[in-house]
Amino acid sequence: MTSGAVCVVGSLNIDTTYRVPALPGRGETVLANNRSSSPGGKGANQAVAAATLGSRVRFIGAVGPDDNAELGLAALASRGIDTTGVRRFSEGTPTGTAIVVVGDDGENLIIVDPAANGALEPAWVSQALGDCSQEVVLAQLEVPVPALLAAAQAQPALLVLNPAPVHDPAALAPLLPHVDILVPNRAELGQLAGRPAPTTLEEVSDCASALDFRGTLVVTLGSDGAVIVAPDGAVVEHVPAPRVTASDTSGAGDAFCGVLAHELARPGSELPEAVRRAVALASTSTQHAGAQVPPTFGVEAPA
Fold it and tell me: Quick check: helix, strand or coil at residue 195?
């Protein structure tokens, strides 16, 4: 398989996951069936997905001086990911962590403490990136926007932004003109547009039209697949998702973004085909526990 080069600028966390019969409501206490700890962080998850499929992947992020850093970096190294661009803080700045609660239906809720991720400096990103003119750079919002702006200004071959989580849509204004492909889920699209989360393709189109963004939009819709939206808001293609029995959806969006970046980095790639494969493989990722895909990821996809 011919593979390209991907550089992920993003977060690395250690996740503590609790399995529960159903996600708790407001003020409700539930008892967990199981607890586990595993590497996570949107940036690391996406890097692992791309590398597992065969891309040459660099990871740029930040960690603390703790055992969690060693665990997270070892997980990246085990997939052949170059971590020389990771900023290692000394005392006082721990590695990021997250609490993930997963219901028996596979749905989840997540609380993240950014810690070192939130201290990633633009100067470090610029130096670590160097010449990225032949790379697809993939970024998310678990690191500061100024750090991502530094990545954008390094002029990568393609800049893909997964705007998750959305904190302040207005803060993205300096970054969006540099983004080639924006990949929100439906809730994030609604937040960016200042509207409720869209539930129909017409509402997706309306939200897209309300954005001050002239690049290409790829909106993930969970079990409904994904859509490609043109700069004028027109839906170019709807890619439905195959039906699978989900065990854990916590890393599905990250799997999608990692696959998308991998496919776009391949010579001669086309966006529609990249989205089709991303939808298919993100669906399979929900059948595995944990936010990072297993080493067998991509071997089989549902029909």
Answer: coil
Average pLDDT for 179-199: 96
Instruction: Give the model confidence (pLDDT) of 62-116 as tens digits.
Output: 999 999 999 999 999 999 999 999 999 988 899 999 999 999 888 889 899 999 9
Domains of the chain: 5-285 (3.40.1190.20)
CA distance 70 to 77: 10
Rounded Cα gap, residues 274 and 239, in angstroms = 11
Beta-ladder partners of 140: 162
What is the Cβ-side half-sphere exposure of residue 21, based on CA atoms within 13 angstroms? 4
Q: pTM here? A: 0.92
CA distance 198 to 97: 30
Contact 254, 248 (CB under 8 A): no
Instruction: For the chain, state the CA radius of gyration.
Output: 18
Grade residue 248 by pLDDT with cuts at 50, 70 and 90.
confident
CA distances from 298 to 177, 280, 282, 302 (A): 33, 9, 9, 10
Residues 6+ positions from 168 with CB-CB distance below 8 Å: none
Per-residue pLDDT for 300 more than 70?
no
Q: Is 254 considered catalytic here?
A: yes
Q: Which of 66, 168, 224, 254 is catalytic?
A: 254
Give the pairing of strands 108-113 and 136-140: unpaired
Cis peptide before 165 (omega within 30 of 0): yes
Residue type, 251: G
DSSP state of 247: S
